[in-house]
UniProtKB/TrEMBL annotation:
This is Gluconate 2-dehydrogenase subunit 3 family protein. It is an enzyme of class 1 (oxidoreductase). Pfam families: Gluconate_2-dh3. GO terms for molecular function: oxidoreductase activity. Its EC number is 1.-.-.-. It comes from the Bacteria. Keywords: Oxidoreductase. InterPro entries: Gluconate_2DH_su3. It comes from Niabella yanshanensis.
């Protein structure tokens, strides 16, 4: 199973709602500017996140999925995975929301704990991200968000009808951005469970799966299957 297949599988398990994953599945995302530029002998463009920001994302991901008896998010290099996904698969609007989210977390850390996120104790990090998780879940339920989404849906339905009348059935609908922490949490889960450590250590993995069996017995505490 290659990474594309793994992304499809995890996205489906999460209800097909993984931001960016749908673009990855449909288009494979765009190739990295650095790779294109290097291949063409052109000027190499800068990456989207700095090394410090990737390390920051690693710590956020590790707080969500810490190392226990199985590997954690840092073992799976989830920060680097988020970097690639946000840079290559997100819309400019979502990229901006995501990047501003890092600044928001740092600001909240200093306001509530008088320390930057990287200097905070593990318990403080967990408290902060738990509060953000609650905030993110409530975000899409606000009247303001629902009203904006309804207006956008109406606009996109009209565009979709026009495209279909032209025989174009692959119209890409626009949508509102999610809360930045929803993006970070989704990419943490996606990046971890499609990585080698996540798939083979946290899940059960068979390199050569047999027949598909949709009804396997499950005992409480058993690991899920990666394949």
């Amino acid at each position: 199973m290659n990474r594309r297949q793994a992304v499809q599988k995890v996205a489906l398990l999460m209800g097909g709602t993984v931001l960016g994953a749908e673009l990855f599945i449909q288009t494979g995302c765009k190739t990295t500017p650095k790779k294109d530029a290097a291949g063409a002998g052109a000027e190499v463009l800068p990456d989207f996140f700095t090394k410090d920001e990737i390390a920051y994302l690693d710590e956020i991901a590790e707080t969500i999925l810490p190392k226990t008896t199985t590997p954690g998010a840092k073992d799976a290099k989830v920060g680097e995975f988020m970097h690639v996904m946000v840079r290559d698969c997100y819309t400019p609007q979502d990229q901006q929301v995501f990047k501003e989210g890092i600044s928001s977390i740092e600001k909240l850390s200093k306001e509530k704990y008088q320390n930057g996120f990287m200097q905070m104790q593990p318990q403080q990090r967990t408290e902060l991200l738990t509060a953000l998780d609650k905030e993110a879940k409530e975000y899409t339920g606000t009247d303001d968000y629902k009203a904006k989404q309804a207006a956008l849906d109406k606009e996109e339905n009209a565009k979709d009808s026009v495209e279909r009348s032209k025989g174009n059935f692959g119209y890409g609908r626009a949508r509102l951005s999610k809360h930045y922490f929803s993006m970070m949490k989704e990419l943490t889960l996606l990046g971890f469970f499609t990585s080698e450590p996540g798939a083979t250590k946290a899940l059960r993995y068979a390199a050569v799966p047999g027949k598909y069996d949709g009804c396997m017995p499950y005992q409480k505490g058993d690991k899920g299957w990666a394949t």
